[in-house]
Write a structure and sequence with these properties.
This protein has 235 residues and is an alpha/beta fold. It contains 10 helices and 10 strands. The protein has helices at 41-49, 70-76, 93-99, 107-120, 122-126, 137-149, 167-180, 194-200, 218-223, 225-231; strands spanning 3-12, 15-25, 30-34, 55-60, 63-64, 78-81, 155-159, 186-191, 203-208, 211-217. Strands 6-7-8-3-9-10 form a 6-stranded mixed β-sheet, sandwiched between helices. The structure holds adenosine-5'-triphosphate (ATP). Residues 12, 15, 17, 35, 37-43, 83 line the site of adenosine-5'-triphosphate (ATP). This is Amino acid/amide ABC transporter ATP-binding protein 2 (HAAT family).
Length: 235
């Protein structure tokens, strides 16, 4: 397994948010974390990214990751697209993208990757000199994902990338996530839009109140009548 999480616990002060989660992600998989508001999805991905102290163990290719070592994790190949996107609106589109390359030392390859990103997302090329705050919500999500890709991650953590987007743009984002697999990326996708998510994911974990209540192949979860009724809002 590329990423292995064992007995993950996270608390905010005295309040426990994640109570012993186990999860695994194999190379090249798209794994979804689904569950209601407050289930602990964001807390889990932040802990994996190194942004929160945690108990238990998280290993990447067998190497333990230290809690709170976000920059080290980024260099090890874990990139996070945070909930709310984390775009710096008063900087230009290009400045936001360049931030994605700051941890790299291969400047020439990074410049080539930036050019490649503009080919892939022509809207970002058109707007490269404009302020990021002037992009639409969907374009900002595209920018956030492109910025994360520019760190050349092996594991991409995406926290609610479709949140607040118009349906057409949300579909575009789901297609984009599905296409990342072809780039050889491994993805942990946190989403509220469970049905859509289960269509593009290989496997999924359903969280409730900081625990995994069920996990398995995404298609099996989507087809399970009890899960469908209880967690996915029926058919
Ligand atoms: P959402 O979809 O709303 O982001 P989630 O599944 O990602 O939900 P978390 O944001 O991880 O859930 O929250 C898990 C629990 O931790 C919730 O009970 C939440 O109230 C609590 N929590 C989250 N962030 C904080 C914080 N900064 N301080 C205190 N409690 C927090």
């Amino acid at each position: 397994m590329m990423l292995s999480v064992r007995g993950l616990t996270v608390s905010y002060g005295p309040i426990g948010a994640v109570h012993g989660i186990d999860l695994e992600i194999g190379a090249g998989e798209i794994v979804a974390l689904i569950g209601a508001n407050g289930a602990g999805k964001t807390t889990t991905v932040k802990a994996i990214a190194g942004l929160l102290p945690f108990g238990g163990s998280v290993t990447l290719d067998g190497t333990p990751l230290r809690p709170g070592a976000a920059e080290r994790n980024l260099r090890a190949g874990i990139a996070l697209v945070p909930e709310g996107r984390g775009i710096l609106g008063r900087m230009t589109v290009e400045e936001n993208l360049l931030m994605g390359t700051y941890c790299r030392t291969d400047r020439r390859a990074a410049a080539a990757d930036l050019a490649g990103m503009y080919d892939r997302f022509p809207i970002l090329a058109d707007r490269r000199a404009g302020l990021a705050s002037l992009l639409s919500g969907g374009e900002q999500q595209m920018l956030a994902i492109a910025r994360a890709l520019l760190s050349r991650p092996r594991l991409l953590l995406l926290d609610e990338p479709s949140l607040g987007l118009a349906p057409k743009m949300a579909s575009f984002v789901f297609e984009l996530v599905a296409s990342l697999r072809a780039d050889g990326l491994t993805v942990l996708l946190v989403e509220q839009k469970a049905r859509h998510t289960l269509k593009i994911a290989d496997r999924a974990y359903l969280l409730e109140l900081g625990r995994v209540v069920t996990s398995g192949p995404a298609r099996a979860l989507a087809d399970d009548p009890v899960i469908s009724q209880t967690f996915l809002g029926g058919r």
